[in-house]
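Students often ask why we bother encoding 3D structure as a string. The short answer is that it lets us treat folding as translation between two languages. Here is a chain of 492 residues written in the first language.
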Amino acid sequence: MKKNIFKTIVCGFAALALTSCANNWLDTEPSNGVGANGALSTDEDLYNVRTGMYYMFKGSSSYYDYYGARMWYYADVRGEDMQSEPSGSRTKSLYNFTYRTASDAPAIWTTPYRLIRRASRIIEAVEGGNITGDAAWIAEMGAEAKVLRALAHFDLVRVYGQTYTADNGASYGVPIVTSALDITATPGRNTVAEVYTFVENELNAAINSGALSTDITTGYVNEWAAKAILARVYLTKGDNANALSLAEDIINNGPYELWANDEYAAAWSKKNGSHLKEPILEIVMTGTTDWVDREGIANLYQESGYADMIMTKTFLNLMSEDMNDCRWGVMVAPKTDDFIEKYGEDRVFLNKYLAMNTFNSLPVIRLSEMYLVAAEAAAKTSDATKAAKYLNAIVLRANPNATPVAEADATVARISKERRKELIGEGHRLFDAMRNNETITRYTSEADQGYHAALNEEARSFDRTFFKVLLPIPQGELDVNPTIAAQQNPGY
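And here it is in the second language, the structure alphabet:
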């Protein structure tokens, strides 16, 4: 039986050796040069734990339940623009909502909390003031840890907690974890509002510390990445004024540039972090020691890999509004006989992430998203001029000959459509629809079923009142923590 996150954290901080708690929540890989309870006394010790923290962010063949794979496809296959390919298995239950209980539902839990544990260890050491070495470097590592700890909490609360705009954060979120807890502790879930407050405070503290780099730090957190995450948090929360302010700061003052129309498709195939200047935060793959095996997200998207998910007929119809859109360049038709028989020349495979052993990096946040954050936040604050300005930056990058969107047409609905086109496959759609109280409609009849296999009625069309838009707290947590067992999400 798995230990819960609190007992995991205790093991990580209090055990004398990695074997003290024998289950798969423990660190067993050698990426962390300091033992689970080894004293942190120098900046080199801190650096080694930082390496382990980023290892959890990047993922591995054992830890693919976060940005290794699942966090990328979770929100997309639960929307209307991507679907599980009928022969696939890894995305199927999230796509068709066939899970019924906490025992058979997929989870995004283990790896985010492992990242949180490692980040907390760094933060406690830095704030304890006993680390020797380069003071600026020590402070920077502490600030990076705050940012990634905040991101992990934010992602967890989006998966397990009702979207903030549904009830102003009054419902259950996830446990906030910042340090080791007593082995007998059984804390409950914090509210969504409490988690958001924690996340905002962490990010603002990191930004205001002045410790983060303002240069491009490919593969690592910098000040701009912290601001971009916070802009995403504010937009999700409905704090549109702050979302707009931060997004504009990044657009106007950051060292990033949008990919040009003629380089968009090729930019995705850049390797070793050489993605030009659009990614603000990315996971860099540099060689065979990095996370490139068959369970990685790139291999799940590829026809030559597991071909686990494809773009829907609905989405291709949406893209067909403009056949000169440069984003067609990352959508490819099948090449093998079986898939050609199914889909013909339709470009059903997304080619943003190349397949195994090509070492292409994975942009987690791009400048394009910040333009769309600014556009949506401006529209929601009745600034039609800015809404059209930032929306058109993306529309006209996609096709410089397109008709610009007029101010009167720069609505939240129009911006939402552009987010679907621009951010397909990057882990946004369900979260976007839920915070804006949209209805996800896969199909309503055989006439518009497209590539979808037969779905239960509940999976064909739903909104944020459907209980399965939230995952259940995993069974392993319920088994060992009676407090959280009494706080399971409704419907399970």
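Translate back mentally: Confidence is low (pLDDT under 50) at residues 1-33. Keep this in mind for the problem set.
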